[in-house]
């Protein structure tokens, strides 16, 4: 829609949110505990408030990931079914696969498709470069009205993802340490995180450049329906690489998104179950275990039902629904950023593994900026 206008926003969001995301694996590696347990050290009431602020968002995000996955499935197969019903079916399939241990196989398969998607995205971007209107006066896009400001906030909400993913990263890091019996070095954990984070940022810029070349120059507007929008995304590749790329990219994107769906179906219930267990443990110093517990399965069922209800009864417009999800994630984000900062700088973390003064200032600046933007948006929206 804006050509290169939001390039600065994409880069800025990835930079300003980096410390909050990094503190997830950093805390888990340093302490062998998850961030939600670190929040408990700050006070039980903080965990209660955090869970209350997240529980509705969890179901909504699961619904959003499911409907995007359904949209890609429909675009690849040419189906004409309502994406909402397909999304509910995918949620059910994801839970079944998690129950029978199918995630590990799917995860290994997806690594291949992530590589394919990355290579094709980089190739398509390079080919699309000549078609871009290189007007860098638009890069700092003037936010002239509340609708555009709302879109910018929505973009930043999931760029590169919602900040609660940092908590999920810490949970998975702890679970992996417990399963393998191996605690990675801090340098290895941070390097692994940096590779994923940088790759995500680069791919985000690639999609923006492709959109600026293929859609912006022709005046094509993003489709309102889920399946039609997915078709537009796949068309970015076929336009630049040829029709052969459409099927490969579509299948790759489908695997990547379905794995993402299974990730949130595992992660959010794990977060909820861990939070409840932490509150029941009365400040125990040992790491909480929720694997294969009834509490974990109950949390998974609760969030799945909540996501299905959201899809069937609250989602009437795909574009508005995704905007609502991402804006909500952005508004809740500063809370997570602040808690992550307090956890990683607490006495629980060995001094050698705490962030440097540079990262503390960077993190504090991010908290101030994210909070200010969220407050400004709420004021402009409801004043």
Provide structural commentary.
With about 375 residues, the protein is mostly helical. About 75% of the residues lie in helices and about 0% in strands. It is built from 14 helices and no strands. It has helices at about 5-15, 20-30, 35-40, 45-75, 85-100, 105-130, 145-155, 165-180, 185-215, 225-240, 245-280, 295-315, 320-345, 355-380. α2 packs across α13. The two termini are about 25 Å apart.
Q: Which percent bin holds the helix content?
A: over 70%
CATH architectural grouping: Up-down Bundle
CATH superfamily: Amino acid/polyamine transporter I
Net shape: globular
CATH class: Mainly Alpha
| Rounded radius of gyration (Å) | 21 Å
> Count the helices. How many?
14
Could you give a short account of the major beta sheet?
none
CATH topology: Amino acid/polyamine transporter I
| Terminal-residue CA separation | 27 Å
Number of separate structural domains = 1
* Uncertain residue segments: none
* Succession of helices and strands: HHHHHHHHHHHHHH
SS-derived structural category? mainly alpha
What's the mean pLDDT score? 86
Which strand-content bin applies to the residues?
Answer: under 5%
